[in-house]
Design goal:
Blueprint (H helix, E strand, L loop, with lengths): L6 H8 L18 H8 L7 E8 L3 E8 L6 H7 L5 E3 L2 H8 L18
Length: 115
């Protein structure tokens, strides 16, 4: 099965960075990093979550964390120049980013967000 090239892959190609595209069957009922890691036969620490948050001062930004971790919102707010931040509601993910849950990449997103 041919894997469709993503914006992230195009950026890596342009920068001449080697990579391997990996495909797997998505379980819509379990998009957790733990499940993805198990499906790929990887350690959960090697699978990363790309999360979209909203800060009270800066607006939307992207946070990338290891699959075995949870977001520390206080720390994320501080690092991003906000006093407070929160995850965006799931129903807002596609309208804001152009991606569905589980498809956000920290690299080459359709819209530019601070990361």
């Amino acid at each position: 099965m041919k894997i469709q090239k993503t914006n992230a892959a195009r950026l890596l190609d342009k920068a001449k960075i080697s990579y391997a595209l990996v495909s797997y069957i998505v379980n819509e009922n379990d998009l957790s990093a733990i499940h993805v890691a198990e499906t790929l036969g990887e350690n959960v620490e090697q699978v990363f979550k790309t999360l979209v948050l909203h800060g009270d001062k800066t607006g939307y930004f992207v946070c990338i964390i290891s699959g075995d971790k949870e977001v520390n919102f206080k720390y994320a707010a501080k690092l991003s120049g906000n006093k407070n931040c929160e995850m965006i509601p799931m129903k807002e993910l596609f309208p804001i980013t152009g991606y569905i849950r589980g498809a956000c990449s920290p690299l080459g997103m359709k819209k530019q967000f601070p990361t």
